[in-house]
Design brief:
Layout: H1 5-10, E1 18-19, E2 22-23, E3 25-26, H2 37-50, H3 60-79, E4 88-91, H4 94-106, E5 114-118, H5 127-136, E6 139-143, H6 153-159, E7 164-170, H7 182-192, E8 197-201, H8 213-216, E9 220-224, E10 235-239, H9 241-244, E11 257-260, E12 265-267, H10 281-295, H11 299-318, E13 323-325, E14 335-340, H12 345-354, E15 357-358, E16 360-362, H13 367-373, E17 378-382, H14 389-406
Parallel strand pairs: 3-15, 5-6, 5-7, 7-8, 8-9
Antiparallel strand pairs: 1-2, 4-10, 9-10, 11-12, 13-14, 14-17, 16-17
Helix pairs in contact: 2-10, 3-10, 4-5, 11-14, 12-14
Bound molecules: 4'-deoxy-4'-aminopyridoxal-5'-phosphate (PMP).
Length: about 400
């Protein structure tokens, strides 16, 4: 399909609504993307035509639900280019995916081991590792960034050693939009930290780039459906089969067992051993629908479009006295984080909201990063496939008003 942003917008019912009597300008896709009709239809269709539990029913609907659910796994596994479908574990989202890995790793880490993260982390990929280290006696090393929000590659490299047991890093920073050179970093890790396992937090990466876990050579990749045009409450953990096969179980209960006695239990094979309980069946099916919807576009077109939006924002911001862009790494996508004079980001967000413009303000679940950058928080506009240049311009019209009101 050729890239026609107005035609794309028509597929998102919510984008034609008004808020506070103004047409909605939705610039908060890094928090969650809006959902196209195809995804909404997939959810409704499941509940109206097929609702049933999976893997356990001796009846038609359960069979059909199971087929659709497992076909969704194939789609999502294919989306990240997994070598094996059972490497794709359904979770409630990135946070749960990272927790499965960090809680399992906490059982293996020992004093003397080192876990490396970056200063860019979302709390989901920081607190998890900090707690795993506190529980195990391993030490947490934090790779620093430059003032522009780019990772300091030399400092990252210097942290890697034979003691490095784990490296966790974001593909794209949610607060600043910095794109990490993940593939290059993993090559360094493989060379300098041979025993390390590597997790890539793909929450912000999936909607802005193609993902190939085999080419990346990571061990785990975590992502959420809702940042990828899919529903909330569902996501995935991809893990290398040889690693996941022996991973400590996460939740125990139905579905994940092989045999059970009153005294003991044995665990089933992948993927079910890490998927206890009834999954978010409709969510998984709708996640696959979102991916299929997204895959109709050429990623080069998507990236070009988002780069145009960002370039316009940067150009308008550069002319805007009193506005300071926070995070201008050479490689960044989707996120325009800023502070406006002495105005508190929350006030800026409030004034924009009254004009129908939705942004996010605050620490973006990255308190240590805000501290590192010397700001209490930022206002963050984030762009997606359905945003227009006109909306970027409206943001700056709104900001003029905010500046006047806050003067
Ligand atoms: N990591 C990053 C980089 C994120 O942006 C987010 C969501 N803001 C998360 C992790 C957590 O994702 P979720 O809330 O969907 O679990």
């Amino acid at each position: 399909m050729s890239f026609d942003v107005l035609a794309i917008r028509e597929q998102f019912p919510i984008l034609s609504r008004e808020v506070h009597g103004k047409p909605l300008v939705y610039l908060d896709s890094a928090a969650t993307t809006q959902k196209p009709q195809a995804v909404i239809d997939a959810l409704v269709d499941f509940y109206t035509q097929c609702n049933s539990n999976v893997h356990r029913g001796a009846h038609f609907l359960s069979d059909e639900a199971t087929r659709r659910f497992e076909a969704a796994r194939d789609t999502v596994a294919g989306f990240v280019n997994a070598a094996h479908r059972e490497e794709l574990i359904w979770t409630s989202g990135t946070t749960e995916s990272i927790n499965i890995v960090a809680k399992g790793m906490a059982q293996r880490l020992q004093p003397g081991d080192e876990v490396v993260v970056t200063e860019l982390e979302h709390h989901a990929n920081l607190v998890t590792w900090q707690q795993a280290c506190l529980a195990s006696g391993a030490s947490l090393k934090v790779a620093p960034i430059e003032d522009n929000g780019a990772l300091n590659l030399a400092a990252f490299e210097a942290l890697l050693s034979a003691n490095t047991a784990f490296v966790a890093m974001p593909q794209v920073s949610n607060a600043l939009g910095t794109v990490n050179p993940v593939q290059q970093l993993i090559m360094l890790i493989r060379r300098l930290a041979p025993k390390a396992l590597v997790l890539v937090d793909g929450a912000q990466g999936v909607a802005h780039s193609t993902v190939d876990v085999q080419a990346l050579d990571c061990d785990f990749y975590a992502f959420s459906a809702h940042k990828l045009f899919g529903p909330t409450g569902v996501g995935a953990l991809w893990g290398r089969r040889s690693v996941l096969e022996n991973w400590p179980v996460w939740l125990t209960g139905g579905e994940m067992i092989a045999t059970v006695t009153y005294q003991n239990a044995t665990w089933g094979p992948l993927p079910s051993r890490l998927e206890a309980g009834t999954p978010n069946i409709a969510g998984a099916i709708a996640m696959a629908a979102a991916i299929k919807w997204f895959q109709q576009f050429n990623m080069v077109d998507v990236q070009r479009h988002e780069a145009e939006l960002m370039a316009r924002a940067v150009a308008l911001g550069n002319e805007f006295e009193g506005l300071r862009l926070v995070g201008n790494a050479p490689d960044k996508v989707g996120v325009y984080s800023f502070v406006l004079g002495a105005g508190h980001p929350a006030d800026v967000g409030f004034i924009l909201d009254r004009q129908g413009i939705a942004i996010r303000t605050g620490d973006h679940c990255a308190q240590p990063l805000m501290k590192r950058l010397g700001v209490p928080g930022t206002a963050r506009a984030s762009f997606s496939i359905y945003n227009t240049l006109d909306e970027v311009e409206q943001l700056f019209v709104g900001l003029r008003k905010a500046q006047e009101m806050l003067a």
